[in-house]
C-alpha cells in the first residue's frame, strides 16, 4: 500500500471512531438521564473518553505522515507510538473509573431500578462498538498503524463496559419484576470484572507502545527473514549483526555484513548497495538501511590457520 493510501485509510478509521463515539455518547447520556441508570451514565462517560482517544489517534496519524526534515531526519513516525501511549492511558483510566464507581455501587444499600430505555441503549452500544472495533482493527492491521489498532481495542473496551451495563440494568429490571432486589448487584459485580479486563488491555497497549518508543528489536522471525535475504545477495559471505527499530509504519535497519577481505573498497560498496536494494525492494515497510562492511571472519580465520 502506498503511503498516501495508508494515511487516508488510517485517517478514515480514526474519523469513524470520532463520529460513532459522539453519537453513542449523546445516546447513552440521554438514555442514562431519562431512565435514571447509573450504569448507563458511567458508560456514556466512557464513550466521551473514546472521542478523545480517537481524536488523539487522528492527530498522531497526521503528524506521523509528515516527511523527514532537518529537525527530524528519521521522520515523524514515532507520533503514532506516542498516540498509542496516550490511548493506553485513557483505556487504563476508563477501566479504573468503571471499577471505582462499580465498587461504590456495590456498597449502596438500595440500588435504583433503571428504565428500559437504558437497556436498549446498552444493546445498541454493544452492536455498534463491536462493529466499529472490527472495522478499525482491520484497517489498523492492513495499514500497520499501531495507533489505530490501539484505538480499535479502546472501542472493544467500550463494548465490554456496555456489556457490564446491560447485565446490571437487566438484572435490576428482572429483580424488580420477580421480587429479587439482589439481582441489581449484577451491575457493580460485572463492572468490577470488566474493569479488570479493560485495565489489563490498556497495560498491554502501553507496553507495546513503550517498546517501540525505546527502539526495541523486532521479532526474531522478521530478523531471520532479513538474514535470509541478505545472505542470498551475491558477495555476502556472512551477516555479523542486524538491528531494526520501528517508527510508526517505518522500519530502519542497521546491519553488518562480511565480504571477501581481498576485494576493493568499491567492490565492497557495490555488495552493500545490492543488499540495500534487495531489502528495500522485498520489505516495503523498511525506509532506510545502513550497512557496515567487514572482512569475512571465517575467511580471516582460515587464512590465519593456513599461515600457521
Automatic annotation (TrEMBL):
Spans through the membrane: none
Annotated membrane topology: Multi-pass membrane protein
Transmembrane in keyword set: yes
Pfam families attached to this UniProt entry: Cation_efflux, ZT_dimer
GO molecular function per UniProt: monoatomic cation transmembrane transporter activity
Keywords for the protein's UniProt record, in alphabetical order: Membrane, Transmembrane, Transmembrane helix, Transport
Stretches assigned to the Cation efflux protein transmembrane domain: 16-214
Cation efflux protein cytoplasmic domain ranges (all copies): 220-296
Subcellular location field: Membrane
GO cellular component: membrane
NCBIfam families from the UniProt entry: CDF (TIGR01297)
Protein name: Cation diffusion facilitator family transporter
Taxonomic path: Bacteria, Bacillati, Bacillota, Dethiobacteria, Dethiobacterales
